Every structure is written in C-alpha cells, then in structure tokens.
C-alpha cells in the first residue's frame, strides 16, 4: 500500500505540473490577443463612416437616373413589338423561301409562332399577311402529304412529315392506316440479306478490310435504315399515342424475320464465330428498338428465336459431320472403280477415321465458343447448349449406326445401295465397304467414343433439368455397345458376302459338267485358279483394313491320329482298291468307327477382327460349301480323280493363307471323302501321277506370273 500511495502521489504531481504549464501558455496567448486588437475598434468606426458615404451617393445616382431608365424600358418594349410586327409582315416571304428550300420544319416553326397574333389581329390589322401565310401553309401541307406517301423518301423523313402535319393541326389520324402500311412495307428493306451477313463476317474477321470496301457501304446503309426505323417508331408513338400495339407487332415481325434469316444461315457449313457475329448484329438492332418500345419486351421475345437458331445450328453441324463421313466412305467406290489409289480401302478407312474423330473434336471446339461467349442471350442458354451438344452426339452416333447398316445392305433399304452398285464389280465394292464399316465401328467403339467422352467431361459437363428427368443426354456405354455389336455383325456380313461370291463360283463348277461322264483328268481345273484369285483379292482387302493378330498357326500333328480324319489314312487307300460291294460296306463301317475314336476338331471358332481370323473363316466356309456341292453330285472314277487332283493342289496355298492348318486339313479331307462316298468307282490317282500333274500346274503358274510381271 505504501508503494501504491507513493506512485499515486507521483502521478498527481505530474498532472499538476502539466496543467500548470498549460495555464501559463493560455495566459500568454490572452496577453498577445489583447495587444493585437487594441487598434481594431477605431478602424471599424472609420469603415462604417465610409460605407454610409457610398450608400448616400448611390441613392443620389438612382434618383437622378430613374426617369431615363423608365424611358429606356418603354423604348425596348416598343422595339420588340415592332420586331414582331415586322416578322408578321415578312412571314409570307419567309414561308416562300422555306418552300423553295424545302425547309418545312422552319416554315412550320415560323407559322406556329405567328398563330397567336393571327388569332388576335388576323381579321383586322394583319388580314393580308394572314391570307398570304395561309396560302403558303396550304402549299406546305400539300408538299408534306406528298412526301408522306412517297416511296422514295426514307422512313424518318415520312415520320418528320407526319409530325409537322400534326403541328399544323392537320387530321393525321385519317392517314394512320396508310402510314402504317408504308411502314410495314419498309420492313422488307430492313431484313438481313446475304450482303449484310457477308459484311458482318468481314468486319468481325478483319475490320481493317472494310475501308473503301463495297460491303462497308452496304453495312452503312443497313445500319442507317435500322436507325431510321427506330426514329420513325419514336415519332409514330408521339403522333399516334394509341399505336403501341401495331408498332410492337411490326418490331416483333422484323426481329422474327431477321432471326429466321440467321437460322437459315446457321444451318449452312459455318463456324460458330460466324454465327455469333450474325447474332450480335441482330441483338444490337433488338436493343435499339427496345429503347423506344419498352413494352414489347423484345429481349425476351428474342430469347426464344435465338434458342431455335442455336439448336438448329448444333443439329446442322452434326448433319454436316455425318455427310463428311459418308463422303469419306464414298472413296471406296471411287478408288476401286477408277483405280486412282493403290490401296483404296486403306485410304477410305483413314479418311473415315479422321472424319469421325477430328470432325467431332472440331465440332466440340466450335461449340465451346458458344459457351464461352458473353452475349447475354447465349449466357441464358448455356444449360440448354450443354444438353443440345450431348443429345446431338447421342443422336449422331445413333444415326451413324443406322447409316452403317444402310450402306451395308443389312436393313430394308438395302436396295438403295444395290441401286448404286450393280453386277460383279458392284458386289465386290459393297463387300469392301462392309469391311471398312466393320473396322470403322471398332475404331469408334475403342478410340473415338473415349476421346469424345473425355472432351465432353472436360468442357461440356453438366446440363439442365433434362439430366434429372430423362437421364444423361450422352451415354457412351450405350454407343459403345451398339458399335461393338455393329462391328461384329458387319464383319460376319462381309464374310457372308465373300462366301456367297465363292459359292456362285462353286455352283457353276459343279452344276455345269456331267460328272458321271467326266473325262480322265489332264490338269488342275481352272476353277481352282479362280478360287485362289478370289481368296487373294480377299486377302488384299483384309490387309488394307484389318490389323494383324497374334500368330497362332494350328499345325497338323502327324503322330497324333486323332486330328486326322480316318478317311485319309492308308487304310482308306487299301479300301478303295476293293470291290464295290466290299468297299461300300467297309467304308461305312470305317466312317462310323473313325467318328467314335477321333478327337473332335473345332472348325468354326469366334471370328476376331484380325486379318488371319477373317481369312481363315472365309476359307473354312468355302471348303464347307465345297463339301456340300460335292455331296449333291454323283461322280465316275475320272470325276472323283479330278476332285482329288484339285483338292491336293489347293491344300498348300489354303494352309498358307489360313492360320488353322489342322482345320483346313480336316476340311479338305472331308471334301475328298465326300467325293469318294458319291463316286461309283472311287479309285484314286496314283501318287506319282498326282505329283506330276501338280508340278506341271505349278510350273505353268510360275511362267504365267513371270510373263505378267
């Protein structure tokens, strides 16, 4: 407590010292003030005396000039009155000059200014002036009426004429219908035209090119016409206060027609930037008209029109993309018919892949500009644009899937395709196209959909209410499944088309000769060459389009008799030398025994989208068809030997072409056995003779290939 008391005493002492110093300073300041204002009172008394002296002298001047001032004011009033009188006397001449110079606005202003005087003194003092002025005004009214209904006059000039007539108390209400009819007719000149759109695009791309450019003149004329229309609407609202409904209707009609023009332009093959330039030009006009017609709500009215325009533009871009893909696929026809390309299918497939993937990326980049633009209307439509883009891709791939089926001839409209390509060459082109479509379907399912999905997820994710009501607009899984299925179907369709062509060749071979009277074989039949040529053409097509697969050649194991048909073993050769009765019985018995003890060979496996798998499957189907044709014929010994020779010659090239040698061996053996079963005397050719005939054929083929090369 003692320490705190000591501290408080110290603080109190410091406060006393500080206040004492302030008190001394205040005392010094008061002393200085007293010394400074000691002579001020005498100065103020002198100033008061001088002010009184000035006031007295001012009163004297006012008194002496009062009479003269009143006289001057009277003279000024008289001068103004004389000016008005002179204006009245000069009015007829002024009106005449205005008529000559067509300065009707000045003439109306002069006449309306003189109307109060004419009403007061027109029947007495200024009777002649009034009569002359009225005659001049009658001429002006007549000229204004002519100007009002002249087609050569601008909209703004007509509106000014109507305003002047109304100021002259002319009954313009009777002209209302004609005026609005003229205004409605003028809408045709205000609608957007091709040159207006061209100018707009030129300005948006490079404004510097507009200098001294013909399009810039068209631009100026169009903008001036729109400005005149806006001014005319403003004037008409003043002249006819009850005309708002008609004016709003005209404005909406003009906006609608302009957006229809923009919609038709948007359906062309244009960029989004070009469409944005056109929409900005229309939106600028809408804002100008909205300033004078607030009740029309043109901005909301324009939103619906822009929605239709942008939606149709999005749909047209997908339509053009579909057309580009069709053009790329058409190279299959052009390349194979004209022989312009060494590998036409490879070129067509590459162009088609580029059209699908790069075309889709270009479309997404284009649509991105619509989303990023700050145009007020597009900002409001952002969610809708997201939905349209996603729905567009879903519908595009669905339509592309249908187009693939149409081009392949797998639906009811296949006649359209066959109408384009007819005959043998047409069948070959159709099969080639089906092969390209199959591989393109695989590309879309494995590559294109993935890239497009990633881009949509990065830039076009989201969507409006549609996302929750009907599910997502873009379903990549569904598209992948459809194109996976389409690829498999088209690949099988290609195999069937090729086998149909080979079946025609086999049918001609087996139905033309009389096999019961067949002559002894001298050489390999020419149908073998045709068959190998057909397989070589197929191989050439497949190598252009399909990728190579993993090499899995199933070779025949001679040590394992289970993979060999019992009908091709040495036992069969001994069997063929027996008598016909013993041969038939033992053959039937051995056939059934072989089926019991042999290991099952899987002939028809799942077709993969590779070169080896497709070629092998076609060879298997061809041999199966050959077996069926053999079973429907009856052969003599020579006919059977001819079949044996042809089959033996085919064995090596077919095994080289296919990857499943075991299955090819098995099927060839099946053909030989089927021929033996249908033969009246199935005695085969001796091996030396068979080898000699095959070697002769090989030598002949080598010489022919050397000559052709």
Walk me through the structure.
The protein has 709 residues and is an all-alpha fold. Among the domains are: 7-54 and 85-168, no CATH class; 318-410 and 426-460 and 472-512, no CATH class; 518-548 and 586-707, no CATH class. It is 79% helix and 0% strand. It has 27 helices and no strands. The longest helix has 62 residues, at 40-101. The chain is elongated. The termini are far apart.
Key words describing this protein structure:
mainly alpha, single chain, 709 residues, elongated, 27 helices
Write the layout of secondary structure elements.
Blueprint lengths: L1 H35 L3 H62 L2 H18 L5 H22 L6 H13 L8 H10 L1 H4 L3 H12 L8 H26 L4 H23 L5 H21 L5 H32 L1 H8 L5 H29 L3 H5 L1 H27 L5 H7 L2 H37 L6 H4 L6 H36 L14 H20 L24 H7 L3 H18 L13 H21 L5 H21 L3 H17 L9 H22 L1
Can you summarize this structure?
The protein has helices at 2-36, 40-101, 104-121, 127-148, 155-167, 176-185, 187-190, 194-205, 214-239, 244-266, 272-292, 298-329, 331-338, 344-372, 376-380, 382-408, 414-420, 423-459, 466-469, 476-511, 526-545, 570-576, 580-597, 611-631, 637-657, 661-677, 687-708.
Principal-axes geometry comes out as: elongated
State mean pLDDT (0 to 100 scale): 78
Report the sheet-strand fraction: under 5%
Query: Could you describe the largest sheet, including whether it forms a barrel?
Result: none
Helical content band? over 70%
H and E order: HHHHHHHHHHHHHHHHHHHHHHHHHHH
Q: Which structural class should the secondary elements be placed in?
A: mainly alpha
How many strand segments? 0
> What kind of assembly state do the chains in view correspond to?
single chain
Keywords: Coiled coil, Golgi apparatus, Lipid transport, Protein transport, Transport
Organism: Citrus sinensis (Sweet orange)
Biased composition (Polar residues): 558-569
Function: Acts as component of the GARP complex that is involved in retrograde transport from early and late endosomes to the trans-Golgi network (TGN).
